[in-house]
UniProtKB/TrEMBL annotation:
<dbReference type="InterPro" id="IPR029044">
    <property type="entry name" value="Nucleotide-diphossugar_trans"/>
</dbReference>
<keyword id="KW-1133">Transmembrane helix</keyword>
<dbReference type="Pfam" id="PF03071">
    <property type="entry name" value="GNT-I"/>
</dbReference>
<keyword id="KW-0479">Metal-binding</keyword>
<keyword id="KW-0328">Glycosyltransferase</keyword>
<comment type="pathway">
    <text>Protein modification; protein glycosylation.</text>
</comment>
<dbReference type="InterPro" id="IPR052261">
    <property type="entry name" value="Glycosyltransferase_13"/>
</dbReference>
<dbReference type="InterPro" id="IPR004139">
    <property type="entry name" value="Glyco_trans_13"/>
</dbReference>
<dbReference type="GO" id="GO:0000139">
    <property type="term" value="C:Golgi membrane"/>
</dbReference>
<comment type="function">
    <text>Initiates complex N-linked carbohydrate formation. Essential for the conversion of high-mannose to hybrid and complex N-glycans.</text>
</comment>
<comment type="similarity">
    <text>Belongs to the glycosyltransferase 13 family.</text>
</comment>
<keyword id="KW-0333">Golgi apparatus</keyword>
<keyword id="KW-0472">Membrane</keyword>
<keyword id="KW-0735">Signal-anchor</keyword>
<keyword id="KW-0808">Transferase</keyword>
<keyword id="KW-0812">Transmembrane</keyword>
<keyword id="KW-0464">Manganese</keyword>
Length: 162
């Protein structure tokens, strides 16, 4: 379950979230008073695929290994410029990486994809090291919205495809 911590509480610590949500929102009335229910919460579905977690090697999820694992996935994603991102996302195969400069830039890009734009305590919601990952058009391909500072943290070259 996602638990948001302020900077003074999280002390620089990160945690990873499952791509399949382990929680289920069963109604639109709650702390957000239904503000985000239709757009962001209603489409969330429970996992229906049985997974034998005990038989899987999950050692790559340990902190020292996961940062490197995650950085490699982001590095392999095809970098694209912010111009016409929807058209590019629709026409380029595979994972994509889009760099945002600041909060305003992130919100602009996120709004084009219908991604939750809220920031808390200086970072986008659901970000891991400043990177927000989402699936595009109900496919397995991912789009990584990468903060400029994240490039340094993950040791990624700042380049993009036209």
């Amino acid at each position: 379950m996602f638990v948001y911590l302020l900077k003074e509480n999280h002390k620089g610590r990160q945690f990873i979230r499952p791509e399949v949500c382990r929680t289920y929102n069963f109604g639109e009335h709650g702390s957000s008073l239904g503000q985000f229910f239709k757009q962001y919460l209603e489409p969330i579905k429970l996992n229906e695929v049985k997974v034998d977690w005990k038989s899987m090697d999950l050692s790559y999820l340990l902190e020292d290994k996961y940062s490197m694992h995650f950085a490699n996935i982001v590095k392999k994603a095809k970098p694209v410029s912010r111009a016409d991102v929807i058209l590019k996302a629709s026409s380029i195969d595979g994972d994509l990486r889009i760099i945002y400069k600041d909060q305003s830039d992130f919100k602009n890009i996120a709004s084009q994809f219908g991604v939750f734009q809220e920031w808390k305590d200086g970072v986008p919601r659901t970000a891991y090291k400043g990177v927000v990952v989402f699936r595009y058009q109900q496919t397995t391909r991912r789009i990584f919205l990468v903060g400029a500072e994240s490039l340094r943290l993950l040791q990624i070259e700042d380049s993009y495809a036209g």
